[in-house]
């Protein structure tokens, strides 16, 4: 009697569908920005009180990127979901990141809004 090898099932992905969608959006945003000449410095920078989805370099400028993905424009879409509180948290995280650097480069905040599969890149949108 010949036994077939037992196929192990793939480990269960514990991320929620919302988190998987967000990760997918960040990957698409990263690829889009790299195609437009930006270089990745760090993904998912976390600190107490804030987070940054992507930290990129555009020439000599450090770019802090917030990525928002929405299936539709319902409820204002991706851009409208970036509240003043979220902007403050991003600014805080950027300040924490900048404290690690010896010199302070020029900086800006960009948003990649993915709505219904279309990418919108808004540059220098959050005023510190």
TrEMBL record:
SUPFAM superfamilies according to UniProt: Restriction endonuclease-like
Region span, Disordered: 1-24
Molecular functions per Gene Ontology: nucleic acid binding
Transmembrane segments: none
Matching Gene3D superfamilies: 3.40.1350.10
NCBIfam families: PRK12497.1-3 (NF009150), YraN family protein (TIGR00252)
UniProt record similarity statement: Belongs to the UPF0102 family.
Protein's recorded name: UPF0102 protein H8K32_11555
Organism: Undibacterium jejuense
Lineage start: Bacteria, Pseudomonadati, Pseudomonadota, Betaproteobacteria, Burkholderiales
């Amino acid at each position: 009697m010949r036994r077939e090898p037992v196929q192990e099932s793939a480990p269960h992905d514990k991320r929620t569908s919302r988190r998987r969608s967000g990760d997918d959006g960040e990957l698409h945003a990263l690829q889009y920005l790299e195609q437009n000449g930006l270089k990745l410095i760090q993904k998912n920078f976390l600190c107490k009180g804030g987070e940054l989805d992507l930290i990129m370099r555009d020439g000599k400028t450090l770019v802090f990127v917030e990525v928002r993905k929405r299936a539709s424009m319902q409820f204002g879409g991706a851009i409208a979901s970036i509240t003043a509180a979220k902007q403050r948290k991003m600014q805080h995280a950027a300040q924490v990141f900048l404290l690690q650097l010896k010199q302070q480069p020029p900086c800006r905040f960009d948003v990649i809004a993915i709505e219904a599969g279309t990418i919108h890149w808004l540059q220098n949108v959050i005023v510190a």
